[in-house]
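User: Sequence recovery, please. Input:
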C-alpha cells in the first residue's frame, strides 16, 4: 500500500486538474480509505465524505481515478445550489461562430439525415457488432472557422449543447488546436445516468487560430460503446467595446440594461430592455434569462442558477422574449417557489452584424411577492432508475412523494426532460398515477425535449405518486434525463 503522503500529494494534484480545489482529509485503516472533501467545481458546490474499499487496488493512481470519479459527480449526491454567484458589472459583446455540418465546412456527415456531431470511445472501431454502423465513423474532430484578429479580443468561450450519450460514457474532453485540453463537466452519464448539459468552457486566446479552429473531442467507456453527441457548438469571442466591428456597425457607445416591474395581480415581472433611443433601431430581439431556485431543466445539477437551455438555436425555459419596441415581456412567476435574490439579464440580438450579440449586466435583488394564502413547492423523486431508459419492453418506474392534499392544489405542472427515441407500439408510454402524458414523439427519434405539462389535481395523491415509462423499440427507446421527473405544485394554505 502506498504511503499516506504519496497518496495525499497525488490526489491533490489530480483533483486540482479535475476542478476540485480543496481536499480536507484522507484517513487510512487497513484496506479502507475515507475521503472528506469540499468541491468548488465549475460553480458547483458540494461536500461530504466517501469510504472506498481499496483492498484489491494497490496502485494509488487507480485510487485517485476512483476518487475523481466520485468527486466530480458530487453535485448529484444532493441537488446543489450556487449560493455565491459572481456577476459582471457591465455588459459584453460576443461575436458568434457556429458549428456547420458538411464536408465543405470540414465536418463530414456519414448520414445525410443526421446533422448531429458524434463522439465515440476508442474501442468502437474494433467492436464487431457495431464497427460498420455509420455513427462509428465519426472521429470527434470538429472544425469552426473564425477569421479574426485574436489580438483584438477580450476573451473566448466554447458553448456546447450536449446529449450525454450512452450511460457509462465518461471522461468527456476537448483539445483545442492541439494545445489545451479541457474536461467537460461530469453531470451523471459517467455514473450510468441519462443526461444533457449546456456548457460554457472558457478558452485561452492562445488556444485559437485566425481561420479554422480544430476541436478534438474524446470520451471513454471501458465496456461497451462510449458515445455522446454535440447537438450544437458556438465559438463565442468577446469583443472590447471599441472593437472595429462595433464601430463600423454604429454600435460604439451601445449600452443596454434590464428593468423589472412587479405586477402583483398577475404574479409576474414586466421585464423591459432599457436601451438609448438612438440605438433602439439596432436591436432585433431581446431574450430575458433569470437566475433563481427551481427545477433543474438544463441538467447541470444546480437548482439555483441561470435557468434555460437551447435546442436548434432556439431558447427554451427562458424568462421571456420580445422582438419589437419597447422590448417588454411578461415573466410569470406564479409557479416559482418563494425566494429572494432573483436576478435577470438580457441577451440582445443585434440586426447588424447578425453574428454579434450583447449580454447585459444582471439586474439583481428581485424577489417573489408575499403569498400569505399560497405556497409553491417542488416535489422530486428520492430515487430514479439508473439509467432511466426504457426500451425492448423494459418498464422503468419511480415514485414522487407529495405532502399536499389534492383539494388544496390550485395548479400542478409536470417538469421533465427527455431524449425521444420512440415508443414503438406502446400507446401510453409515460404515465403518472395511470394517466398518460405525451412527453416524446411516439415514432422516430429527435432532439432533447423539455416539458412543463399541467397535471389535473384529481390525478394527484397525497403521499406516493407513481411514474411509469415503457417503450418496446428494439434500440433507442425513451430516456428520461437527469434530474428526472418532478412536480411543481401551487396550493392553498390552511
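Assistant: Recovered sequence (494 residues):
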Amino acid at each position: 500500500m502506498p504511503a499516506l503522503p504519496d497518496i495525499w500529494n497525488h490526489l491533490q494534484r489530480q483533483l486540482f486538474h479535475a476542478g476540485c480545489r480543496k481536499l480536507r482529509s484522507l484517513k487510512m485503516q487497513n484496506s479502507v480509505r475515507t475521503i472528506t472533501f469540499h468541491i468548488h467545481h465549475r460553480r458547483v458546490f458540494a461536500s461530504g465524505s466517501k469510504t472506498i474499499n481499496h483492498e484489491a487496488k494497490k496502485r494509488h493512481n487507480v485510487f485517485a481515478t476512483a476518487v475523481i470519479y466520485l468527486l466530480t459527480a458530487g453535485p448529484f449526491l444532493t441537488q446543489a445550489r450556487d449560493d455565491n454567484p459572481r456577476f459582471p458589472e457591465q455588459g459584453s459583446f460576443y461575436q458568434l461562430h457556429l458549428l456547420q455540418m458538411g464536408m465543405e465546412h470540414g465536418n463530414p456527415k456519414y448520414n445525410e439525415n443526421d446533422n448531429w456531431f458524434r463522439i465515440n470511445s476508442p474501442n468502437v472501431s474494433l467492436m464487431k457488432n457495431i464497427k460498420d454502423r455509420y455513427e462509428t465513423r465519426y472521429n470527434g474532430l470538429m472544425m469552426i472557422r473564425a477569421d479574426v484578429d485574436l489580438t483584438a479580443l477580450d476573451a473566448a468561450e466554447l458553448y456546447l449543447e450536449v446529449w450525454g450519450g450512452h450511460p457509462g460514457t465518461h471522461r468527456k474532453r476537448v483539445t483545442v488546436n492541439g494545445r489545451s485540453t479541457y474536461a467537460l463537466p461530469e453531470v451523471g452519464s459517467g455514473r450510468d445516468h441519462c443526461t444533457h448539459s449546456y456548457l460554457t468552457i472558457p478558452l485561452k486566446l492562445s488556444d485559437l487560430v485566425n481561420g479554422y479552429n480544430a476541436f478534438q473531442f474524446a470520451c471513454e467507456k471501458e465496456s461497451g460503446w462510449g458515445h455522446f453527441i454535440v447537438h450544437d457548438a458556438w465559438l463565442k469571442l468577446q469583443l472590447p467595446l471599441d472593437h472595429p466591428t462595433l464601430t463600423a456597425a454604429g454600435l460604439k457607445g451601445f449600452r443596454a440594461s434590464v428593468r423589472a416591474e412587479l405586477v402583483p395581480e398577475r404574479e409576474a415581472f414586466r421585464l423591459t430592455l432599457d436601451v438609448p433611443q438612438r440605438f433602439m433601431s439596432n436591436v432585433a430581439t431581446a431574450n430575458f434569462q433569470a437566475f433563481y431556485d427551481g427545477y433543474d431543466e438544463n441538467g447541470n445539477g444546480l437548482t439555483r442558477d441561470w435557468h434555460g437551455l437551447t435546442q436548434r438555436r432556439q431558447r427554451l425555459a427562458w424568462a421571456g422574449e420580445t422582438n419589437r419596441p419597447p422590448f417588454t415581456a411578461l415573466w410569470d412567476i406564479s409557479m416559482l417557489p418563494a425566494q429572494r435574490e432573483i436576478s435577470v439579464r438580457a441577451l440582445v440580438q443585434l440586426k447588424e452584424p447578425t453574428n454579434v450579440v450583447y449580454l447585459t449586466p444582471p439586474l439583481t435583488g428581485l424577489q417573489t411577492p408575499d403569498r400569505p394564502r399560497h405556497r409553491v413547492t417542488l416535489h422530486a423523486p428520492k430515487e430514479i432508475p439508473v439509467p432511466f431508459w426504457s426500451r425492448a419492453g423494459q418498464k422503468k418506474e419511480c415514485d414522487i412523494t407529495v405532502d399536499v392534499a389534492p383539494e388544496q392544489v390550485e395548479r400542478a405542472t409536470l417538469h421533465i426532460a427527455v431524449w425521444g427515441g420512440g415508443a414503438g407500439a406502446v400507446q401510453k408510454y409515460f404515465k403518472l398515477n395511470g394517466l398518460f402524458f405525451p412527453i416524446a414523439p411516439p415514432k422516430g427519434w429527435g432532439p432533447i425535449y423539455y416539458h412543463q405539462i399541467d397535471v389535473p389535481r384529481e390525478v394527484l395523491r397525497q403521499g406516493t405518486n407513481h411514474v411509469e415509462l415503457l417503450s418496446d423499440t428494439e434500440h433507442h427507446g425513451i430516456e428520461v434525463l437527469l434530474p428526472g421527473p418532478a412536480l411543481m405544485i401551487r396550493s392553498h394554505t390552511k
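Residues 1-81 have pLDDT under 50 and may be disordered.
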